[in-house]
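User: Working on a comparison across species. This one is Urotensin-2 receptor 2 from Xyrichtys novacula. Can you predict its structure so I can line it up against the others?
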Amino acid sequence: MALVRMRNTQGANATEIEKKIKRGNALRQSSTWRGSRGSVALLLVALSVCLAAVGLYLTSLDGEITETLVSQSELVTPKPRVFTVQCSEDYENYKRYPGCTPQKCGRAVTDSVVTRDEAEVLRRLAERGLELAGSEGGASILDLHSGALSMGKQFVNIYRYFGDQIRDVFSQEDFQLYRDVRGRIQAVIAETFDLDPTRMYLTKPTFFSRINGTTAKTQHDEYWHPHIDKVTYGSFDYTSLLYLSDYGSDFTGGRFVFMDQNENRTVEPRAGRVSFFTSGSENLHRVEKVTWGTRYAITVSFTCDPAHAISDPSLP
Ligand SMILES: *[C@@H]1O[C@H](CO)[C@@H](O)[C@H](O)[C@H]1NC(C)=O
Ligand SMILES: *[C@@H]1O[C@H](CO)[C@@H](O)[C@H](O)[C@H]1NC(C)=O
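Assistant: Here's the predicted structure for Urotensin-2 receptor 2 from Xyrichtys novacula:
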């Protein structure tokens, strides 16, 4: 009996064990299902994290810009848009020139000093001049004052190199327009910063620039490093830029960036747009690398020190 009972219990036990095993299998099956649902969810989460990271990376390419002071599509007219910043101590290390040394500092942008037609004439002038040579590294300059023109890894003097033939490239009218435009820029800077325009002088370097996305070959081609004009060129007190092409349609990248303590503030180039600022540390800046197309601009610099004055260019 005992044996039979035992066998019976064993039988019962066996069926119960079978049931348990079956239940276990069922449980295991559902948990595999739950498990795979879990991994699908995990995969989705991972995927969205990846997408978010890519998105963040893409915006971070642009994300260094924290504020757009003036976009390409805006038209700043008739008055310049002025952004005041506190003057740095740089000016204290230099002789002060009444009527010129900055008393107030800042940056400003105007689209009403140079017309788009004038900008086009000047861009053509730049194209013709720079066509004569150009840097190998994608950043070329033409300085009509000194005659310096990028050529390969160096510079040549266009007036010496091309002699009278330069008259086939530039006309008197071109030079007249150039002088005229620099006078207007000087006037708007003086008005904006309450200066005496007769006490500010054009200084060097003042030049045309042509930039494209070609890899830099020499240091001259590396225009994108952050810098302070007054530190780089002691004579500068006011820097201005006249843009000759449009950000977005003529080129991409190449925006001008003021690098402030907690913000990167950009001015988007627009043909005919003049952007100007005091040259001290209050205006640390850089130009983004050009990623596509060609960017033309003119840098026009002013000093308060008559010893650093240069004269307007004229055809030989
Ligand atoms: C970029 O400029 C360099 C010279 O500075 C020139 O050799 C090159 O052809 C230009 N590239 C384009 C795409 O215009
Ligand atoms: C400004 O841009 C620079 C690089 O150009 C970057 O290192 C810095 O973090 C940016 N600053 C801000 C506040 O985004």
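For your comparison, note: Residues 179 and 312 are 6 Å apart (CA to CA).

User: Helpful, thanks.
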